[in-house]
Amino acid sequence: MQPNLEPAAPAAPVSLKLDAPGPRQRLMELLPPLNVLGPLVALLVAGAFFASQTDRFLSGQNFSLILQQVMVVGVIAIGQTLIILTAGIDLSCGMAMALGSVVTTKFAVDYGIHPYAAVLCGMAVCVLIGFINGALVTSIKLPPFIVTLGTMNIAFAVTQIYSQAQTVTGLPDALTFFGNTFHIGQTSITYGTVLMLALYLLTWLFLRETAPGRHLYAVGNNPEAARLTGIATSRVLVGVYMMAGVFYGIAALLSVARMGVGDPQAGQTDNLDSITAVVLGGTSLFGGRGAILGTLVGVLIVGVFRNGLTLMGVPSVVQILVTGVLVILAVATDQLTHKKG
Amino acid sequence: MDTPDTIFKARGLVKRYGGVTALDGTDFDLRAGEILAVIGDNGAGKSSLIKALSGAVIPDEGELHLDGQAVRFKSPIDARRHGIETVYQDLAVAPAMTIAENLFLGRELLRPGVLGRWLRLIDKQRMLTEAEGHMRDLKIGIRSMKQAVGTLSGGQRQGVAVARSTAFAKHVVILDEPTAALGVKEGNMVLELIRRVRDRGLPVILISHNMPHVFEIADRIHIQRLGKRVAVVDPKHISMSDTVAVMTGAKEVDDLPEQARA
């Protein structure tokens, strides 16, 4: 490269001033960012639409039902969000959940292990799958899409072989506790939905307020910068996949509680459903941008659409079509805003 | 050359990549409180030298001394622990994160007591206040530390990266081509910023292709050629064209007047 011999312009006596925030910018800081606000508006618009179409939509009991319908995929989507924030993706989540629920129920029913211990075993299996995913992604640097495609099939096959494709029945009460309900006035609320909301709150605090939570964002946003500032990026990644496993394990328990059986056929669409929810919630597939509460909104959007369209008597195939359109809209928005930023 | 105020020194550094010798026994001296520019043609071993000094590569031979102590860096993190901060050309910032978060990336301030030690809760308020303090020290006018770095201009991002390194550097700040991607005005702002870093007592190693910038700001200029240090010159007593002549090998060091050497 030729050295630049042009004489330097006289040094400007200016400091690197940032633009002072105007009232508009200050207002923007108070409001949630656009990627959270957008989905929230979409949810409210969808709610208003269905409320105007069917008078059965707007009731406490129906909202409670929507929450109950989304609680399994809702908890899976928490794990999915953590992984997508690191610019990864997890296709194995639903199959891990199914294996976890089969292990939990078979351990408790067939081997007579204490239900709590059985739950821990199911969770351990999910965390192990997460560990395998994370280890393969970080040590051999395989793309998460391929790794989790592989572990998805492995987990599915193991689930079928281990359960001999039979549902596990005759569960102890402890395993179905989260499917029970309590009442506030006329509305019956499922314990599992409360657990789901509590997990969202905890994850929100974790991501916002803790150092590991911020490292997770940094690893997704600029892994090289994260590494150079001393963040152990591989450890963060493996930790994230294992943590997602914990959420899949909890989802397994919720699935068991909701259906009252250990079902080896469960979770087969949960990978795409959870990714849909994450993307609808405004989290970028490129990593580093997004918010966990956005995912909750995304989960609710899917739930509200399914519920509302069902109440309107729209066939379920059309519901799948609508979800597909929603996902493409959300990904397109992500792509366009990412290019700009 | 080994003056008492030498703070960071290298002797006989060798680095080979296969058959290519990038560093061929090069020396290096940085004195306290100075801006030392490192220049050299492409392939002169400039970036290998900087990487060896910042821990990014481990030299095959030779030794490093920091504050009179022999040191070996196994990684950039290791060098950082010794108080040597590097601002990389691509700045190594996370654009979606705020200025305050970037300043403390990987070194977050934790809440006192159990909340910090066990739950690893970060102290956002203290990070904001301290970040503002660091930016103010360098006279970088910042209103909101909550702004995402991705929304800043190139010069402002450079300001954030420099502020981060000076906030934590105990001994040395290394700046790799800090003005390369900037326009004239912002380039000059960054030069001013580098002076302020030096005036706060931190010695600065500046790698640059931009001769006018080097001559405007450097106290001494280290000229690297063919994997060796061929000269250290005083920009006040040598012309730009003579410096380039030494750098490219058109002129020998012995041809220079005595006072040009530093």
Kindly list the characteristics that best describe this protein.
heterodimer; A: 341 residues; mainly alpha; ABC transporter involved in vitamin B12 uptake, BtuC; 13 helices; B: 262 residues; alpha/beta; Rossmann fold; 6-stranded mixed β-sheet; globular
Which CATH-level-2 architecture of chain A?
Answer: Orthogonal Bundle
Helix vs. strand class of chain B: alpha/beta
What is the CATH topology classification name of chain A?
ABC transporter involved in vitamin B12 uptake, BtuC
What order do the helices and strands of chain B follow?
EEEHEEHEHHHHEHEHEEH
Q: How many DSSP helices of chain A?
A: 13
Q: Quick one: biggest sheet of chain B?
A: 6 strands, mixed
Structure explained in plain terms:
The complex is a heterodimer of chains A (341) and B (262). By secondary structure, chain A is mainly alpha-helical. Helix content of chain A is 69%, strand content 2%. Chain A has one domain (58-340): ABC transporter involved in vitamin B12 uptake, BtuC (Orthogonal Bundle), CATH 1.10.3470. Chain A has helices spanning 23-30, 34-53, 60-85, 93-109, 115-139, 144-163, 191-209, 211-221, 223-228, 233-259, 270-280, 292-311, 316-340; strands spanning 181-184, 187-190. Chain A has a two-stranded antiparallel ribbon with strand order 1-2. In chain A, helix 3 packs parallel to helix 7 and helix 3 crosses helix 12. The longest helix of chain A is centred in the last third of the chain and has 27 residues, at 233-259. Chain B is α/β, with parallel strands linked by helices and 262 residues long. Chain B has one domain: 3-Layer(aba) Sandwich (Rossmann fold), CATH 3.40.50.300. The termini of chain B are close together. The mean pLDDT of chain B is 91. In chain B, the strands form two sheets. A six-stranded mixed sheet of chain B has the order 6-7-8-3-9-10, sandwiched between helices. In chain B, helix 6 runs parallel beside helix 7 (184-199). Chain B contains nine helices and ten strands.
